[in-house]
Amino acid sequence: MIRIEGVSAGYGGGLVLRDIDVEIAPGQATCIVGPNGAGKSTMLKVICDDLRPTQGHVDIDGTRVTGSGPGGAIRHGVVMIPQTNALFGGMSVRENVLLGGHATRMPRRAAARRFDELAQLFPVVGERAATHAGLLSGGQRRMVEFARALMIEPRVVLLDEPSIGLDPKSRQTLDASIRALVNAGATVVLVEQNVRFGLSLATTGIVMEGGRLVASADAATLLDDPELRAVFVGGHAEGKTS
After folding, report:
1. Which helix (H) or strand (E) holds 57?
2. pLDDT tens digits in sequence order for the chain, 242 residues long
3. What does the alpha-carbon distance between residue 208 and residue 220 come to, in Å, rounded to a whole number?
């Protein structure tokens, strides 16, 4: 369970999030949607303690994460996959994935076993293990990023705009991979501008506007609510914000 209580946060003295209270259920995917500037990505940064809130805190399974810093969040089982390509293009797929275990000083044998497990979950990891990551397609790079995040068997995986820049075929692969993360036992929290795609992956949706929580409900219910749809897609059916 991710419990966010009374959180306000921002940059340079200006607030982006304002008094957020929400609980995110474990073992499922939750999608955060809303217009540009709503505070969605900032919410992810607060959860992984990459951004310290000016007030409030985040607890995961009853443990206070706020104040532990990004390294502490990783030790608490929280990993974040940013929207920009975070792989080292000159390193092999295998080397990139194994880096995921370094933050917790995973023993070499355990890391090798975990790599083999992830190669079963994400076939591109095994098939392209010796390939430089910079030679992969956008969709393949996303799969490698997911595998690296799962090296430490995290409790929480945060995804910032995972479908950005992907073609339809790659989005299908992404869909399957996010479901694989949930099936592996992770709690997934994703931010998506493609609202229909994001909510189709999720059990629960969180709607934000102007740094505040507008609604938290079943994802399918949010997609069918015309008033809320006008907030987070600007009245457009294809998931574009105004």
Report:
1. strand 55-60
2. 899 999 999 998 889 999 999 999 999 999 999 888 899 999 999 999 999 999 999 999 888 999 988 788 888 889 888 877 678 999 999 999 998 888 778 889 999 999 998 998 888 999 999 999 999 988 888 889 888 888 888 889 999 988 877 778 778 877 887 887 788 788 999 998 888 888 888 999 999 989 999 888 899 888 887 776 666 554 333 333 33
3. 17
CATH for 2-84+155-233 is: 3.40.50.300
pTM above 0.90, yes or no: no
Q: Which residues are bridge partners to 92 per DSSP?
A: 132
Chain centroid to CA 159? 2
| Distance (Å, whole) CA 26 – CA 13 | 33
Residue 103 burial (CB < 10 Å; 0-12/13-18/19+)?
middle
Say how many C-beta atoms besides its own lie within 10 A of residue 61's C-beta. Answer: 14
Assign 135 to helix, strand or coil.
helix
